[in-house]
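Input structure tokens:
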């Protein structure tokens, strides 16, 4: 999860919502990504989606059986659906997303017995660190909107 946090910090530095993701196969990172929605002007450029594309390329397969994803925020419906289609084995996430999380918070797409695959999901990993980065980002955005330029993470 610490590698995913590094990716989230990169997103923060690029003025993107700080979500980072890595995909592991065996003991090796095969993909890493962070949100690039603003940079690519693409609402689907979530860290998970970009990491999935990289992972498919890395293992030359459209399915990620035996792979695990570490992501700093609970995946949304789009990402959770893609994870099911990719047949990813394990999903480890940091902060829960009580507004749009689709791995148990609002919906539970990754554990829906009607779908063709069920992923094992583990939430709350380094949730404090992941949540603090998100909070700092949105506090900074609100302060800028209100004309306050002196923002401190402390």
């Amino acid at each position: 999860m610490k590698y995913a946090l590094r990716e989230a910090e990169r997103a923060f530095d690029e003025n993107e919502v700080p979500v980072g993701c890595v995909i592991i196969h065996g003991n090796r990172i095969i993909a890493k990504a962070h949100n690039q929605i603003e940079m690519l002007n693409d609402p689907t450029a979530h860290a998970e989606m970009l990491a999935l594309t990289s992972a498919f390329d890395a293992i030359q397969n459209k399915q990620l059986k035996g792979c695990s994803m570490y992501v700093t925020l609970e995946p949304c419906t789009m990402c959770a659906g893609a994870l099911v289609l990719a047949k990813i084995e394990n999903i480890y996430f940091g902060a829960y997303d009580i507004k749009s999380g689709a791995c148990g918070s609002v919906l539970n797409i990754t554990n829906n017995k009607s779908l063709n695959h069920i992923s094992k999901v583990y939430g709350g990993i380094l949730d404090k660190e992941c949540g603090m980065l998100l909070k700092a980002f949105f506090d900074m955005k609100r302060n800028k909107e209100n004309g306050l330029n002196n923002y401190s993470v402390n």
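The helical segments are 2-13, 37-40, 47-59, 77-86, 127-145. The two ends are 22 Å apart (CA to CA).
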